[in-house]
Design a protein that fits this description.
The chain has 12 helices and 15 strands. It folds into 3 domains: 40-149, Glutaredoxin; 151-304; 307-433, Jelly Rolls, CATH 2.60.120. It is of the alpha/beta class and 433 residues long. Residues 1-23 have low confidence and may be disordered. A 6-stranded mixed sheet has the order 1-11-10-14-8-7, with helices on one face. Strands 2-3-4-6-5 form a 5-stranded mixed sheet. Strands 12-13-9-15 form a 4-stranded antiparallel sheet, with no helix packed on it.
């Protein structure tokens, strides 16, 4: 898909923090809560020991898994300046368990993820189907290993910072598979409800909200934003990861805002929304269709709200339209309006935002107009007169079948679920060809 950005690309180079020096030991001791040499076979490489029930032959899987995890460690320590987990720093192997759900000696409720055992050390559980060379699941979980000793209080795994831990792990796995649309299967969890905050997770949802696949997967799906930043707009990968070990008290979203500069980060976020509406043209071919398939299979069809309002060959009929309170954009969320177009002419889009959010934070908005014609798209910035007021006039042809207005809330406020309301006016002039 071809897309043209009618905006400037901003690139910022930030020096990475000083590397965390890992303790290098030639040998490590075994210390495991869940396995022993009497009941399990094992293999080791570097800091890792991989265990599996003797009732199964997972020797080859263990070899592939070890190779994958060693590659992750090389990236995390050598490239991203992260730290080893506490186990090897204390002289013990980091335990990894290949398990066969409900068929082996390990707990039946194990899935894929990192936990902390009775010895106080983190460990990893990998279903046998994911124990293979280059497994994105193993890469995601492997990245978590090196987040464990992060020293930034603003990046804890809770509240309004939790999203970043999961999103960066998915981001890392996607960087290892640049041609794979399967690394963005949860993208639809973001675009099905784009009005929620970019830091939305299952721990900071609003009171009374439904719990479903798309709400729960939003924090994983936000790798589409992080991969857009680094892979498309060339934001430094070291900057993205550097906050974990920078002793940062700011929330991740605030850290990015300050590191990149407020104006730049606001524009990048609005451009990202335009990229989503354009069908992810700079992501692997088929990303939009693949993520839509995932939403259809697992999502709640009653909780899908990608478009606030849809028009046909016209706009708001000379009236100002204000979105309802349930779907108005939250801080660092966005709303989408769609026009099904089949005529030549021009559309004039006007945005008038409220001066403050629902809880009093000063408001700021960005707007984008997306014009789609067949497999190509163009993204135009709404020209902002000030922080809340903007306008854009765009000429269209009858072949431009879809025209979208995006309203993104980009305030200098980075927590909670505060809403930022506004009014829009869309006028169509069919005489202006």
């Amino acid at each position: 898909m071809k897309m043209t950005f009618v905006v400037s690309v901003c690139m910022t180079m930030i020096l990475a923090p000083k590397p965390m020096v890992a303790q290098q030991l030639k040998t490590y001791s075994i210390k495991s809560t869940y396995a022993s040499t009497e009941t399990c076979n094992y293999k080791t490489d570097g800091i890792y020991i991989v265990w599996w029930d003797k009732a199964f032959d997972y020797s080859d899987k263990a070899t592939e898994l070890l190779s994958t995890l060693m590659d992750v460690r090389e990236d995390c320590l050598g490239t991203y300046r992260m730290s080893d987990p506490p186990n090897p720093l204390a002289g013990f192997y980091y335990n990894v368990y290949i398990h066969n759900p409900k068929k082996d000696l390990f707990p039946d409720d194990w899935a894929m993820g990192q936990g902390t055992d009775e010895n106080g050390y983190p460990y990893l559980t990998i279903p046998q189907a994911y124990a293979k060379m280059g497994s994105s699941g193993a890469q995601h979980e492997g990245f978590h290993i090196f987040q464990y000793k992060a020293n930034s209080p603003g990046f804890v795994y809770s509240g309004d910072s939790q999203w970043f831990i999961e999103a960066t792990a998915n981001w890392y796995a996607a960087t290892k598979h640049p041609e794979s649309k399967d690394e963005y299967i949860t993208a639809s969890a973001v675009t099905s409800n784009p009005q929620v905050t970019l830091w939305y997770s299952f721990e900071n949802r609003e009171a009374g909200e439904v719990e479903n696949w798309q709400r729960g997967c939003h924090q994983y799906g936000m790798n589409i934003f992080l991969n857009y930043l680094t892979d498309v707009r060339k934001v430094s990968k070291a900057l993205l990861v550097g906050g974990f070990y920078g002793k940062i008290s700011q929330l991740p979203q605030e850290y990015l805002y300050n590191q990149l500069g407020g104006k730049t980060f606001c524009d990048l976020y609005a451009d990202f929304a335009g990229h989503n509406v354009s069908g992810y043209p700079y992501f692997p071919i088929g990303t939009e269709e693949r993520s839509a398939k995932e939403l259809k299979k697992y999502g709640d069809s009653l909780d899908i709200h990608p478009i606030v309002a849809t028009y046909k060959n016209n706009g708001t009929d000379g009236e100002w339209y204000r979105p309802g309170k349930d779907f108005v954009t939250r801080g660092w969320g966005y709303n989408v309006y769609k026009i099904n177009n089949s005529r030549n002419g021009s559309y004039t889009f006007q945005l008038q935002g409220d001066s403050a959010g629902s809880e009093g934070a000063p408001a700021e908005f960005r707007g984008r107009v997306v014009v789609r014609s067949g497999s190509s798209s163009k993204v135009y910035p709404v020209k902002m007169k000030d922080a809340t007021t903007g306008m854009r006039k765009v000429k269209v042809k009858s072949s431009d079948s879809q025209v979208y207005l995006i309203v993104a809330a980009t305030p200098c406020f980075f927590k909670g679920n505060q809403t930022y309301s506004y009014s829009i006016k869309i006028d169509k002039d069919e005489k202006n060809n």
